[in-house]
Design goal:
Structural class: alpha/beta
Number of helices: 17
Organism: Dictyoglomus thermophilum (strain ATCC 35947 / DSM 3960 / H-6-12)
CATH class of the largest domain: Alpha Beta
Distance between the termini: 55 Å
Largest sheet: 5 strands, parallel
Enzyme class: oxidoreductase
Protein name: Glutamate synthase (NADPH), homotetrameric
GO molecular function: glutamate synthase (NADPH) activity; iron-sulfur cluster binding
Strand content: 15-25%
CATH superfamily of the largest domain: FAD/NAD(P)-binding domain
CATH topology of the largest domain: FAD/NAD(P)-binding domain
Radius of gyration: 23 Å
Pfam family, one: Fer4_20
Number of strands: 16
Length: about 450
Amino acid sequence: MAIVKTKTPIPEQPVEERIKNFDEVALGYTEEQALIEASRCLQCKDAPCVKGCPVNIDIPGFIRLIKEKKYDEAIKKIKESNNLPATTGRVCPQETQCEALCTLKKVGEPVAIGRLERFVADYELNKGYEIPPIVKKYDKKVAVVGSGPAGLTVAGDLARMGIKVSIFEAFHEPGGVLIYGIPEFRLPKRIVRAEVEYIKSLGVEIFTNVVVGRSVTIDELLKEYDAVFIGTGAGAPQFLNIPGENLIGIYSANEFLTRVNLMKAYKFPEYDTPIKIGKIVGVIGGGNVAMDAARTALRLGAKEVHILYRRTEEEMPARYEEIVHAKEEGIIFNFLVSPVKFVGDEKGHLIGIELQRMTLGEPDSSGRRRPIPIEGSNFVFPIDMAIVAIGTVPNPLISMTTPGLSVNKNGTILIDKETGKTSKDRVLAGGDVASGSATVINAMGAGKIAAKSIFKLLTEE
């Protein structure tokens, strides 16, 4: 059979409609489309795609089952490795991970692995999920701090191994960055809530509004639990540290997206979370968070939204798909510019941003070409709202209140990457709190490593 070189397109909301709402942009494959796409998989014996998956999903295995219309078996195959498939099927950067290694890429486009994962995950959500049997239960308890992708993965894996798990979440709703950081149009909250319910169905209990490090310390948890996993992510924003950063009209992307996503500012006044949107918005940064913030500002009524990025599109860390969607929706990209200072009026309101033009030099430690300022190229760009999306670091609360827990200069917890163990006995960590800001699937991969390590620690001692 001839090889089909291109992916089966995924249906999407028309641009002119989606910029007026927060509904999901990509609508998902129909059964017919999924079967066509699954038939493209070559079922490679060495399965290079699996090597690109941080949680080692048997990708050819689940795609073969889709091709055979065995959807129940397909989702079971995925869940052998992944507790959150409806989420990862939507937000994973497959193009740089599993799909990047797909054999078909040598002659055309790779198999749409993420879209197929989403298809069977949504199939299961619609029909109701099946709770796997737990063969043996152990008289051991583990506390998981944080209910984001790393925490949910550790909790789900340990529960399936027969360990009792309690999750402690600082916010009023579990899900971590999946709830507060990713907009509804990219990851609907009903999907996150459904996958959290699946984790709870395994026997995991979740306590919300518990700020570990303030309400209870790690040492106090260790008195009650046999081990503690810290998966609190990187929720503290980084700032530019340039003049004028305290002017009215400047948000961190964290605050902006949390107010809109978790606190539903986009439904004001139905929800009591006001948010002021400028007419001309400048978003500083080039990652997925910058794309999310820009597209959110546009939907909330901004007339113009500009991405301000100091390198070129080639170096942008955002997913290609998110960049394409942003362009389609009218986001304006301004490359090779870097903020020097914010400009305000006499009342302290933002009215502009002074930018300096850049050129690119040799690659730096990130592998991307280094931006170099061009002397005398400064100019003022008129904006009345700015969103700073240049990365995040861990909140220091836990490291400040946990004696013996080692962190680096950025506040990330130092761990053994092979086990997830920290410098403190019976305390493990993983995800963004240990790696710095990364992807959902990388955090889940770290969670799986820690879960295996904790199980071994508690059952072989």
